[in-house]
Amino acid sequence: MGLLIKHLKNDEDAELFLKNVGLLKTKEKCPYCGSTEYYVIRRNHYKCKSCRREWSKYKGSIFENFRIKPLKFLKILEALSEGTVLKKISKDLNVSYNTVLKVRNLIREHVLKNILNVDELEENIFIGVNHVNHKIKLDYLKTIDFSLIKDNKVGKLGRIYFIHDYKNYELLIVISENTIPELDEKSRELILSKLKKELRVFVDDFTNKISSRKLVNNKTILYSIFLSLYINDKNTLHEIIFSAFQNIKK
Ligand SMILES: [Zn+2]
């Protein structure tokens, strides 16, 4: 499944794309009585010959939740996966800010709950980071042992602490709503040059986003960190984003 959203020209293309990724099902029968005899009554609407009821082509799909056209919806997903700020997406694609926000929140909740397995965010978020088999792996930790942190191993950037060599993690990221005295007394200027190149690129990417957008919400910070894992693998990121809409609840 290659990234081809930018090549889609119209809603018909977009619908086909959505069908291919499993986000839009083709209805082959009436959703009310099961009859296969139906006809088009007006754009995007069908009527059953047998029970005479009508339904929209998008019944049971994501477009019942988001009243936007398929092409625009995919363009929003693409822009979100590129890390474009919500305001710019809203302006560029001429969609309301609230719609973009709603789509982003749905993806964010899916990532936190189903991909990172985070149920509820605590005041402090601890993320163990390793680079294994050319992939960066994140572990969400419930708590850490401050006594294991050595003096010259802590760097700080805004509300984010970076700890080198914590237990079996090359890097530990701590996102905190308030300063943590145990870490502050050990912290110094952030030095990431000791990290492996792949980890450095990853950390650079999300720290840039976080500082340029003044992100304050822990959920959004964690989500941004997650997006940065895929700076060089947009296909996988798109699959994850699509999966957010696969089992959507109404
Ligand atoms: Zn029917």
TrEMBL record:
Pfam families: Zn_ribbon_IS1595. InterPro entries: Transposase_Zn_ribbon (IPR024442). It comes from the Bacteria. Residues 10-53 form the Transposase zinc-ribbon domain. This is Transposase zinc-ribbon domain-containing protein. The lineage of its organism: Bacteria, Thermotogati, Thermotogota, Thermotogae, Petrotogales.
